[in-house]
Specification:
Layout: H1 14-34, E1 37-38, E2 44-46, H2 47-53, H3 59-64, E3 67-69, E4 77-80, H4 85-94, E5 104-113, E6 125-134, H5 139-155, E7 162-167, H6 174-186, H7 194-202, H8 213-218, H9 231-246, E8 252-253, E9 265-272, E10 281-287, H10 291-294, E11 302-308, H11 309-318, E12 330-335, H12 339-351, E13 356-358, H13 365-374, E14 379-384, H14 385-389, E15 392-397, E16 403-407, H15 411-418
Parallel strand pairs: 1-5, 7-8, 12-13, 12-14
Antiparallel strand pairs: 2-4, 3-4, 5-6, 6-11, 7-9, 9-10, 10-11, 14-15, 15-16
The structure holds adenosine monophosphate.
């Protein structure tokens, strides 16, 4: 019998792999812009990390972990990572990253594993891009990670995504929230789905975001977590919203948004595709000031997100979206016997860290300009014989159409200055 791939996994064939590579390139590019450094953690970790770091009363820990016994006599229990935040937090503590200037801003990209019923948009091996800011509880950090996530989707050319926002408070306000929710649900929980009936005693907050229709109805009049926030959490939430407004990032308040994981505090957000059904979330995140202590470390605040890339790709296909591929910073166009100068100039520009390109097909000057436009070059350096004899080239800004003559020997520095390098 022919052997098939395991359920809930996919093969990525060359055509699709190209897309993946574009997405990965964009991730690295954007994270550099935002000042995040890449971290790569193991694909499996001690099971304990997820029990404590994700929380026992979550679907992930209750039903979805791929756990196995390591070899050796005292074979430890290991688990294929179902998410990236707890491993990043562990790595922060284990590698003493708190000794570095704070905050530490990290991002990751890689496969995650959850044993779940496979269906459209839900796999057992899937990929996430995540980012975390560790070591600050400043509300502008919450806004920054949200801005990074939204910039990612925008750069992929995706439309119509909605940012949903909520605050679920801290250990100070949680008991008040809990008490109100217990009071509300205790007389109604019998009508809820079996999962919610179980969750009720352990984590009544979770009943708010159950996707089952019956639970939504039961919970429709439930108290709002934001009404129970302590003054500190209330102020934090106001500031996060103010920073989002400043960055012109629209959001919708969703008091039902609590996220599945136990370690979240304060800000919770999700990015959804309205009307896409059960698998409508392409990503989500929030603040997790309690995580580091939960896994045995010092108290270090953190905020971050995880975006699902299979769902992102599916959405791109649906919307026929294509990522913005940045063109070269500068295209060197030339006419006449200028090949030596062009070759040297392109080499010098590249050596200075500028993306530069040129013509190899013997195109005329006009055709070279059209070609530069097609490549989406930001600037063109025109090296005509006549200008070169005077030691000059023409610099053209392709967006504004402005042109000026500059000295050939200054070309690299001028380009560096205008391109901000
Ligand atoms: P979570 O870590 O559960 O907040 O998930 C973050 C994002 O990862 C979700 O919004 C989804 O886009 C994606 N995701 C989570 N679970 C799966 C899965 N089983 N299959 C595919 N994508 C997933």
């Amino acid at each position: 019998m022919q052997i098939a791939r395991p359920r809930g996994t996919r093969d990525i064939l060359p055509e699709e792999a190209l897309r993946w590579r574009q997405i990965e390139d964009l991730i690295h590019h954007l994270c550099r812009l935002y000042g995040y450094g890449e971290i790569r953690t193991p694909v499996f970790e001690a099971t304990e990390l997820f029990l404590r770091g994700v929380g026992e009363a979550t679907d992930i820990v209750e039903k979805e972990m791929y756990t196995f016994q390591s070899k050796g006599q005292r074979g430890r229990s290991l688990t294929l990572r179902p998410e990236g935040t707890a491993p990043v937090a562990r790595a922060y503590l284990e590698n003493n990253l708190h000794a570095r200037p704070q905050p530490v801003k990290l991002y990751y990209f890689g496969p995650m594993f959850r044993y779940d019923r496979p269906q459209a948009g839900r796999y057992r091996q899937f990929h996430q891009f995540g980012a975390e800011v560790l070591g600050t509880d400043h509300p502008a950090a919450d806004a920054e990670v949200i801005a990074l996530a939204m910039a990612f989707f925008k750069a992929l050319g995706l439309d119509g995504l909605q940012l949903q926002l909520n605050s679920i408070g801290c250990p100070l306000c949680r008991p008040v929230m809990r008490e109100k929710l217990v009071e509300y649900f205790s007389v109604r929980v019998a009508e809820c789905c079996p999962d919610c009936r179980q969750r009720f005693s352990r984590n009544p907050l979770r009943l708010l975001d159950c996707k089952e229709k019956v639970c939504r109805e039961v919970g429709s009049q439930a108290p709002n977590p934001v009404d129970c926030l302590c003054p500190g959490c209330g102020e934090h939430f106001r500031q996060v919203r103010r920073y989002l407004d400043l960055m012109r990032l629209p959001y919708t308040l969703n008091p039902r948004l609590v996220r599945g994981l136990d370690y979240y505090t304060k800000t919770a957000f999700e990015i959804i595709v309205p009307g896409a059904g059960a698998q409508d979330a392409v990503g989500g995140g929030g603040r997790y000031d309690g995580l580091m202590q939960a896994i045995g470390g010092r108290a270090v605040p953190g905020v971050g997100f995880a975006l699902g890339l299979e769902r992102t790709l599916r959405l791109m296909e649906k919307q026929s979206a294509s990522p913005e591929v940045p063109g070269p910073t500068v295209f060197v166009a030339s006419a006449g016997e200028t090949q030596d100068v062009v070759t040297k100039l392109v080499g010098d520009l590249r050596a200075a860290g500028l993306a530069a390109d040129r013509d190899y097909m013997g195109r005329g000057l006009r055709a070279q300009m059209r070609y530069a436009q097609k490549l989406k070059a930001a600037y063109v350096l025109l090296a005509g014989e006549e200008e070169l004899q005077r030691g000059r080239v023409i610099l053209r800004d392709m967006q504004t159409g402005e042109q000026k003559e500059i000295r050939l020997e200054d070309a690299v520095n001028v380009l560096r200055a205008v391109a901000g390098k």
